[in-house]
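ok so dumb question maybe but i'm new to this and my supervisor (M.) told me to 'just get the structure for Integral membrane bound transporter domain-containing protein' and walked off. so i did the thing. is this what she meant?? sequence i used:
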Amino acid sequence: MEATTSERERKRESKHHESVVDSKVRTRAMWRSRLGAALRTTLACTIVGCITLYGPVAIQRMLSFPALSYVVVIALVTEATLGDTVRGCWNALYGTIQGVVPGMLSLWLIGPARLSIATATLVVTATALVVVAPQSTHVIAKKIALAQIVLIYTFSSFNGVHKAEVLHPVHVAASTAVGAFASVLALLLPYPRLASYEVRKKCRQFNKNASERVKLFVQAFCAENNATANATMSRANSLTKKGTKILQTVKLMQESMQWERPLSIFTKPRYLNSSDRLQALELPLKGMEIALTSCPSFPVGVAGDENLKTLLLGLEEHITRALSQAKGIGPSESLTESETTKGDVSDKFLQTLQSATFPSGNDLPSFFFLFCMKLMDGRLTADHPQESKGAAEKMSSAPVKKKSILGGWPVKINSERFIVALKCSLSLGLAVLFGMIYSKQFSCWSGLAVAVGMAFGREATFKSANLKAQGTVLGTIYGVLSCFVFQRLSNIRFLSLLPWIIFTSFLRLSRMFGQAGSASAIIGSLIILGRKNYGPASEFAIMRISETFIGLACSISVELLLQPTRASTLAKIQLSNSLRAISECIELITLCSSIEEVKEKEKKLRGVLRELGNFMGEAEAEPNFWFLPFHTACYNKLLGTLSKMADLLLFVTQAMESLTQDSQRVGIACTDLKKYLDGDLDQFKNMVSSSIRCLEKITLIKSLAKLEKAMNSGANTDGDVELGKAPNANAFKLFTADEEEIGKTISSFLQHSREVVDNSEAFEWDEKMKGQIILNLSAIGFCMDALIKQSKEIQKSVRELVQWENPSSQVNLCEIYCKVNALCT
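this is what came out, is it supposed to look like this??
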């Protein structure tokens, strides 16, 4: 007993030590990342400062807009790789063509002497509309073009005939070029920060992360009690969050690698599509987690089979070895282990499964876990390296797409895109107008605040404006204080930027400041410390803050006038769209269906859920005013449930595709399987899909009071509303039926699946094939059961949401649906 206790103590201490070491490693990695980004940003700003402040007089005259150079640096260097910066320079060139060339022509035609405030405002508005309208143009190109437009027309209007109409835009272009040059140089020195290297490093981290998660999941699966399983799952959850962040980073850097290809001669082609390969490994890991959280208790029944448990541990060892040998490139990397050994592990695993009893309802989570283990093993080892290699080489040989630069003209602009362009152009025009009315000399800062911070789409306007205002004020004050401290050492005051840039780089990822606030804080200090001949720093700071406020106020006003629909309203509409998309995917669940059509629908569903998340984030950040507060907690639950259902649908598709392929491999027609399973699948689809369709209609209701008013106005009320009966017999069947009735659907499917397996001799399946069929059918059964449970969770959340919006009403979803249906007929 004492020995056992001592062993547990040692294990606990070992785990604690590993946790402390891992925490220190993460902290060091974060510091290296933050400091690296801050130092490169500082280097780029220093290069610009040295050129504009201490360069030859002729160059200083040419670079009369150092603020634009700093803006370009912050846009191109912050958190960037060399590929990002090269792409940014290309976009800066295109933005210069859009901003400077029309500016030269306009000044030549109009003449600076006739460029009044009204004329400058009209030209800025019209030019901005042309720049923003094409959807294909990159955001950086648009921002740089708009910033150049503001500088060209505001300074020309202020200086009038004292400024040569041709040289003025040339100075703007030169300032842009210096910022781009400094950005590239900062990413090259002291060594280049290549996206290809970062992707390789992140892929290795992901493989290590995935290997650790597999080990923890198997430990939890084989746990002897609930406490051990829960503790192991808690450790796995933290690794899951870390793995998700790594995967997101790889996706973001994927396009940058294309821009580095001429410079990265040692980059292997297979790294160019690493995100897809890693995503293929993330799916079965997510399935294992779902399976374990669905297990009613531990130990699970399957883990009691010692033979199967031994083979499961062998499969785990094989997967972790494969991940360690993959060198960060995912499932298509060949292994050093022999194919015979690999096949033995997999074959014995399936052969052992075929001898096991077909799972009951309680065993479905266990068998789904085994299905995900086998799926991951297959994606690591059964892929065809030659095919993957050929696909990667084909991708690497393809030319870099410069769609954002050269594509899009002629461009088809829809009404939504036109509204966005009109909103941006009016914001910029009004900012320039009121900025020039307030102070013609400093009017450019109101326009620059809008141009540089423009989102070209929906965003949390008030939150973004608040962050930009705070960042501008803090950065400006820091610059003024630095000027005061270094007033006798003006030549080295630029060095005070280093601690500020490091500080703001940590704030960049915080919720309090975000990217908008951090960038504004850096630019605010740069413009104070990197300026010359602007007069006293404090006076200039006050004028710049005032002009920035004018620009942000114009941006908010135009946003409210042209896009008055609140984000919370859009989130509610998108919730309805998400329910419809889920319902459409469920309706496609059938054997031998068009897999491509199903996958296309599931891809569309992912996009709809992503848009829902965006609207939720915007709605959470917008002020309530006199409106009902946004129910963030309820929407988060709904999004989580819908996302889980989307994952389950992916597993259903995978299992059905595998089942169809395995059947066809041994010459079994789909009709032979359909006659066993189609009836249960149809019953499941009708029950779940129709119920979700009901919830879709309910979520579109503005208020129950308006619904009652519409009912009392004499609308058609066919269907027994008083009794709460829906005209459609299947409507709300899932939510009104008891557990026993719902359980019959799953039990019937399992019974018919058991009959399919029992007829394996008639189907001429071998032991390996029979084991695979058992896994596929069990996975489908588990996903059906889980989809039913998640649908009930959606029903509870929708009821909570309707009650939140109608606190004085008694909510009965079935009755509400009957009224909605009656009004629609």
